[in-house]
Amino acid sequence: MVRLREDIERLVALDAERGGYGLAQAALDGAAEALRLQKHNAASQRVRQRLFALASDFTATAAWSLIDAGQLDGAGRHLDHALTLAGLAQDSEMAMQVWNLRAMLARQRRAYPEAVAAARAAQATAIARRSPLHASLAHARTAVGLAHSGEARAALESLARAEDALAKADLAQPRPSWIAFYSPAELYCLTAIVRDVVGHPAQAEAASHRALAALPETYRRNRAHTTARLALAQLHQDDVEQACATSGTVFTIMAGTPLPGRMRQLLGDFQRDLIARAPSAHAAHAWTERYRTEWSSS
User: Where are the alpha helices (DSSP H) in 215-277?
Assistant: First the structure.
């Protein structure tokens, strides 16, 4: 089991560095091995539950790889399986991981009521009820879904709950690898999304800058994604030239690594907003000519 846990941590580190692209099969192989080991007659009930939890973790990681790659069709099926495995493990930590990813998947599909429902299911898990760190993530995920649903006031209230909960969390305590990414930096990232969606681009820009200042250097994919969000916030303040310059650095940050599908979608949103806001601007034409090929082929 130690080797399997190390395999999970390795996959999580690869995801943070370059994105989930290409990790799904390795994660599914890990899940299959954990399930094979739990069938041994010599395994105690406790060991079996730990192996079910590992299988859930691997399966959820595979789903996340597909979500990040923009391959959404298979992700839901893997999340359903991961939730079943979390139930067999009687592990609320793994159940929350699944609901968190279910909220992200629904948002990528623009199924915003489902995203809110999944985030609230994450809030209801036992781990979120006793851990301020987990509660903060669940409230932040709810805020994003509510913002996209047009419920600005409720979104900002959920964001405030996320901030309050994170202030109570002991960030020095060890945590499972799946939630290692969540920190004040990540909450700033999510704050930037919420603020931009509800029509507060200046606050979104400020939150993006705070996130970039706090993100670890090893979180290259998150840094690139937050940079794209910063560009959108600048564009939504009609700072076209600065927004184009900022968005261009996404390709520099991710140089040598394919852009995850989720990031390509975000850059597509940027391009559409750029053309809508500044169809005749030289900067808009220059951005399109310079990055169209790199963006689509990355």
Answer: 220-235, 240-253, 261-277
Residue-wise DSSP of 46-115: HHHHHHHHHHHHHHHHHHHHHHHHT--TTHHHHHHHHHHHHHHHT-HHHHHHHHHHHHHHHHHTT-HHHH
Q: How far is CA 158 from CA 97, 130, 190, 192, 203, in A?
A: 19, 18, 11, 14, 16
**Of 42, 109, 99, whose CA–CA distance to 70 is shortest?**
109
Chain centroid to Cα 39, Å, comes to: 33
Per-residue tokens: 222: 């998150």
Has residue 19 got a pLDDT over 60?
no
Average pLDDT of every residue of the chain? 89
pTM of the predicted structure, to 2 decimals: 0.91
198 touches 159 (CB < 8 A)? no
**CA–CA dist 123, 107 (Å, integer):** 17
Q: Do the Cβ atoms of 170 and 89 come closer than 8 Å?
A: no
User: What is the mean predicted confidence (pLDDT) over 4-8?
Assistant: 71
Distances (CA, A) of 72 to 86, 158, 172: 21, 26, 34
DSSP 8-state code for residue 260:
P
154-177 as b/e: b if 16+ CB within 10 A: bbbebbebbbebbeebeeeeebbb
Which residue's entry shows tokens 């968005």?
Answer: 247
Cβ atoms within 10 Å, residue 217: 7
Residue 261 pLDDT level (bands cut at 50, 70, 90): confident
Under the banding of pLDDT at 50, 70 and 90, the label for residue 1 is low
Torsion angle (degrees, nearest 10) of CA 247, 216, 59, 53: -160
